[in-house]
Amino acid sequence: MTKKERYQFVIDWFEKHAPNAETELLYDNVYQLLVAVILSAQCTDKRVNMTTPAIFEKYPDIPALSKATFDELFPLIRSISYPNNKTKHLIGMANMVMDDFGGNIPDTVPELIKLPGVGRKTANVITSVVHQQPNMAVDTHVFRVAARIGLTTNAKTPLQTELQLIKMIPKEKIYIAHHWLILHGRYICVARSPKCGECGLRPACKYYQQLIKA
């Protein structure tokens, strides 16, 4: 199977079996999604979803969050990983949006990554989920799944993985392909004991073909 054929098989399978794949973070608008994604770094979506309602109730928008103090916000984030840094990032992010972007969350990756707590992955999530821009956020799940299946070759960094994926995936499907790969990695192609017996991608998967040969 050529790489092009592998990509086509994977895309066709996901389009049939996961046509409505989307983020598991709960949000109502771009502000809530940005807060949730910043909090989700090295933390589960489930834990973030348990934490954000209290934050959004007290700080319903960017102007409100920009007025928060560390001591006020920290208790709401205490149960999240790295709460000190994330508390500072959220307040800093809100202040920069107010001061540098007129209170409007920017919608491009180069502008978003200027915000505290926002790296390339987070910026790609925001622009792909909210605006359906052809950006591929690469977390540990995407990195692992893409390599195992054989969608990437010798990709050593998230950026190398991102560039290889967006080169081969049709532009209009990149935003949903991000969710396909994340969810597949979260529930089927898990890190330690991938559930190959439940996986419909076996005919195209390099990892599975190597298991058979072994």
Automatic annotation (TrEMBL):
Record carries keyword Signal: no
Domain of life of the native organism: Bacteria
Taxonomic source organism: Chitinophaga chungangae
Name of the coding gene: nth
Protein name (record): Endonuclease III
Catalytic activity: 2'-deoxyribonucleotide-(2'-deoxyribose 5'-phosphate)-2'-deoxyribonucleotide-DNA = a 3'-end 2'-deoxyribonucleotide-(2,3-dehydro-2,3-deoxyribose 5'-phosphate)-DNA + a 5'-end 5'-phospho-2'-deoxyribonucleoside-DNA + H(+)
Alphabetized UniProt keyword annotations: 4Fe-4S, DNA damage, DNA repair, DNA-binding, Endonuclease, Glycosidase, Hydrolase, Iron, Iron-sulfur, Lyase, Metal-binding, Nuclease
InterPro entries: DNA_glycosylase, Endonuclease3_FeS-loop_motif, Endouclease-III_FeS-bd_BS, HhH-GPD_domain, HhH_base_excis_C, HhH_motif, Nth
Pfam families per record: HHH, HhH-GPD
Gene Ontology MF terms: endonuclease activity
PANTHER family linked: A/G-SPECIFIC ADENINE GLYCOSYLASE/ENDONUCLEASE III, ENDONUCLEASE III
